[in-house]
Structure formats: structure tokens, C-alpha cells
Write a structure and sequence with these properties.
Layout (H helix, E strand, L loop, with lengths): L4 E9 L2 E10 L3 E9 L11 E8 L6 E6 H20 L6 E5 L3 H13 L5 E5 L3 H12 L5 E3 L3 H6 L3 E4 L18 E4 L12 H6 L1 E4 L2 H4 L4 H8 L8 E3 L1 H7 L10 E4 L4 H17 L1
Parallel strand pairs: 6-7, 6-9, 7-8, 9-10, 10-13, 11-12, 11-13
Antiparallel strand pairs: 1-2, 2-3, 3-4, 4-5
Amino acid sequence: MPKAEVKDVFLGSPSNTLLSRAARIEGIGFGVKSVTVLAENTQRDLPSVQGGMIVFDERTGTPKALIESALITDIKTAADSALGARYLARPDARHMVVLGAGSVASNVIAAFDQVFPSLERFTLWNRTHAKAEALAETLRGKGLPVSATSYLAEAVAMADIVTCATMSTDPVLQGSLLRPGTHVDLIGAYRADMREADDDVLTRGDIYVDSRDTTIGHIGELKIPLAKGLISETDILADLYQLKAEGPGLRSPDTITVFKNGGGAHLDLMIANAILQLEESQ
């Protein structure tokens, strides 16, 4: 597939943001997903992220569809992380730890359960432990081996895969806790001031991203340590375009791999196109 053109626009404050992500992919067309992000909506019993995506015909520019953003994002986010892990995580991974207890955490667990048959258990951690317990109970009801813990350090130290799916602006994952061979999947940070992993995670691990264009200069997870000189752009070994062309980035069984899931607009457009194709075939 040809490399996408992408552009992100942020408006508003860190706590009250309008995020618009646009993409063009030759052979597919144009797409724009616009969402509002209000963390305090959880106190109003409303989603923290709301919006929609418009897909335009490549040849005529005619709007083809308006798709609810949550459907696009739910599929895209989990698929992006699962694809990164297929390239970078050990194929015999048995224990996955997930930081966060929202819809992203639920979708990621379901996706990894399909992609990694070797996984025997999932452990959830959340700042509000009751939310982790509630989600674990829901997922167990779907037949998934999920438990909740309030002991983050102990869980991470025993993990083969660690996924961060939080809205944190300060690191919640410490690199000193990671054992050799762990795969780290970073999802939550999407703004320049947001981070989920501390400096040790990035300096201990081999770093990969889903797209260089949507992560390196835009997301605090990479932008902050780059500005501090702790890592350089040459430390970012590959993105998904390169991994697809060159094959798996995994390395020795003891290497820690770090995958930043930036969730760019090109992925939204690919998922929207797949949804439309499925709809047209029915």
C-alpha cells in the first residue's frame, strides 16, 4: 500500500481538546476523523472521546460515509498494537499486563487473545482498582482469563507483554521493573505533553513506532526524551512500513522492545475503508 499523507490538528486546552486527523491514501481516498477529548466527562457519565469520521471518494471528492469515531478507534487501536506485537513480541508470551481499565484495555485484551494463542493470563491494573476489578469480571464472563491487581510493580516484573492504555501525562510504567524479553506497547499518550513510560523504558528498549510521521514530532512519549537528548531519532529503529518490508524486528529473546502506537489518521482511513467494503459486500 502506498505511504499515506497525514496531518493532525489540535485545538483547545489539554483538558478540553478537539483533535482532527486527516489522511489521504492513493487507491483509497481521503478521510478526516474529528473528536473531542474531555477527561472530566467520566464524572458526567459521558464518554471522554466523542466524534465522527468522514470518508471522501478519491476520484470525485464526494463524501461517501460518516462513521461514528468509537467504532473506528476501537478496531484501529487494538489492531495497531496487535500488529506491532506480532512483529516484536516473543511468540511464546504467556502473561500480559494492561495498565488502564477503559474500552481500549478491553479491546486490546480481546485482540491479543486472538493473535497470541500462547497467552495464558491477563492482569489489569488501574489507578481506581474498582474499575480494574469490574472490567476483569466482565471479561471473565466472556471466557477470557483476566484478573485485576493493585500491585503494579509485581505484575510488571512477571509480564511478557505490558500494554499502557491510560490518559496519563506523567509516566506510570517504570523501565527498571521490566525483565529481559518484555514487549512494551504504549497506546495512551497522543499529545506533546503526555507520557506513560519513563525514560528507563526508552533507554532500555529497542524502540519502534507505527508511523514516524505521526509520532516522533508530535507525541510526548518520544518528543520529550528526544528534546532532553536521552534518545535520538536513530534510536527509533523502524515503523510498520519498514517492519512489513523487512520482516520482524525481534532480535534476541532477552531484548526489550518498545512499540509506540500513535494511531495515525492513515489507520483510521484503512479501517473505515474495510468497514465500507464489508458493508458493500452484504
